[in-house]
Amino acid sequence: MGERGRPRVLVTGFGSFPGVPANPTEELIAALRTNHAKDAAFRYEILAVEYQSVPQRLEALGHDFAPDIAIHFGVSRNSRAFDVETTARNVVCTVKPDNAGHVPAEAFVRAGEGPLLSTLPIDAIKRALEMAQLPVALSDDAGDYLCNFIFYLSRGMHVPPFAPKVAGFIHVPPFDTELSNGERFSLDMLKRGAEIIIETSIARWQDA
């Protein structure tokens, strides 16, 4: 656990996968690594789009970093804004392989369990992005691929000792997508929005 008032913050993105040869969240993580904020300890990770490696990486991060806050970013070709996911669902696609060619045998993440709600300060994030004139929407469907998978594992604390008290997922559009406000999505816009999401989450953690 981080020092009092100074949380440990994990921010993740994914690499490329079939249909998405360039993942904007990979570039986001590289851009964020230049930040040196003093109000938190940070760890930035790019994760492989693989069902077996994600839990292994979370377990290692639990041992090495023990985050208080975990903010996961992923890309969706359906997004036209910063889609703040509200709900991690216990579903997995059993027909779409990951980057290693693996297809899950079961259509759930954990047997017998239900949906899990994000513990990010969703309303505060939405207001902050709106104030910055960045497009934002709330979503209750994170899909059934690796994005929802890591969201569910992270929120459910299913990979000991990885147990952030605050965890959630944000979907973003591919670069150059025309957004709901008519602008084209860019790395600068993505970085500004991500920084707002991170800062808002830290502020709420400190208030609590």
Commentary on this structure:
- With 208 residues, the chain is of the alpha/beta class.
- It has one domain: Aminopeptidase, CATH 3.40.630.20.
- It has five helices and eight strands.
- The chain has helices at residues 24-32, 53-64, 122-131, 146-156, 187-207, and strands spanning 8-14, 41-47, 69-75, 82-85, 87-88, 116-117, 136-139, 166-172.
- The model has no long low-confidence stretch (mean pLDDT 94).
- It starts with 7 loop residues before the first strand and ends with a helix.
- The chain has a six-stranded mixed β-sheet, with helices on both faces. A two-stranded antiparallel ribbon has the order 5-6.
- The radius of gyration is 16 Å and the shape is globular.
- Keywords: Cytoplasm, Hydrolase, Protease, Thiol protease.
- It catalyses: Release of an N-terminal pyroglutamyl group from a polypeptide, the second amino acid generally not being Pro.
- InterPro entries: Peptidase_C15, Peptidase_C15-like, Peptidase_C15-like_sf, PGPEP1_Cys_AS.
- Pfam families: Peptidase_C15.
Question: What is the secondary structure topology, with strand pairs?
Answer:
Blueprint: E1 8-14, H1 24-32, E2 41-47, H2 53-64, E3 69-75, E4 82-85, E5 87-88, E6 116-117, H3 122-131, E7 136-139, H4 146-156, E8 166-172, H5 187-207
Parallel strand pairs: 1-2, 1-3, 3-8, 4-7
Antiparallel strand pairs: 4-8, 5-6
Helix pairs in contact: 1-5, 3-5
